[in-house]
Amino acid sequence: MFIEVLRRHLESLSTEQGGWLAGIRDPLVGRALALLHERPAHHWTLAELATDVAASRSSLAERFTRLVGMPPMQYLAQWRMQVAAGRLRETGAKVSAVAADVGYESEAAFSRAFKKATGVAPGAWRVQAQERPAP
Predict the structure, then answer these.
(1) 11 exposed, middle or buried (CB, 10 Å; 0-12, 13-18, 19+)?
(2) Of 94 and 16, which is predicted with more confidence?
(3) How far, in Å, CA of 114 to CA of 131, rounded?
(4) Could you point out which of 28, 67, 82, 129 has its C-alpha 20 to 30 Å from the C-alpha of 53?
(5) pLDDT interval class at 119 (50, 70, 90)
């Protein structure tokens, strides 16, 4: 039933509406989003992603940006931070393990990126997230 509701919602979206929901409706961008979501730790390049979805780099970048609202690599960076935030909140994994899980070879680089995205260092974010009630 949930799938049917989601399918109908996707069909009702206007063609001007952006975001990842608009992106998954497009065959090309939808495949790219699926790959990024399946393998956030992979060291993606635009060229590799375009090859994997059978598109040119420029056409993928243009369509992805138009539909999702940001370029693929920027989307990947945000997706990695969302995945990392979930792992920090839901597991006791070390920050270095979370960093590796989302594609960072260095805990320091991950910590800088996470703090830039959230305004808080990963360890402090974990403490704050565990103190907040679950949604």
Answers:
(1) exposed
(2) 94
(3) 19
(4) 82
(5) very high
The kind and range of the H/E element at 93 are none
65 & 96 share domain: no
Residue 123 CA to residue 36 CA, distance in Å, equals 25
* CA 55/CA 80 separation, integer angstroms: 23
Q: Of 18, 47, 70, which closes a domain? A: 70
pTM, entire model: 0.81
What residues contact residue 34 under an 8 Å CB cut-off, 6+ apart? 24
Mean pLDDT over all residues of the chain? 86
Domain ends where: 70, 92, 117?
A: 70
